[in-house]
């Protein structure tokens, strides 16, 4: 995701569909490979979605993005899907901390 973050470079995020209703948006959780704190979720290497280093997903980097911007190469380029195991862990993490 580009912008909306103190991080100057593109930050890898996972997108979680928000509840239905206007506006149509997704919640994103940012991923870091350089910093983690208690409560962050370990995020292993997953080359299928461009996670080329071990890292952490964090509610500290939670943002929203309008559906129209998902997959937009300039705003939020699509990089792939999480493995089923990681998807389950991310959704449980989000439910626990949101």
TrEMBL record:
This is DUF427 domain-containing protein. It comes from the Bacteria. It comes from Nocardioides plantarum.
């Amino acid at each position: 995701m580009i912008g909306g973050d103190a991080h100057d470079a593109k930050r890898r995020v996972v997108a979680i569909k928000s509840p239905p209703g206007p506006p149509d948006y997704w919640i994103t959780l940012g991923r870091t490979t350089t910093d983690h704190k208690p409560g962050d979720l370990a995020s292993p290497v997953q080359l299928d979605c461009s996670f080329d280093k071990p890292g952490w997903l964090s509610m500290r980097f939670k943002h929203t993005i309008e559906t129209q911007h998902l997959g937009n190469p300039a705003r939020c380029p699509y990089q792939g899907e999480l493995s089923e195991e990681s998807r389950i862990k991310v959704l449980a993490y989000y439910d626990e901390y949101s």
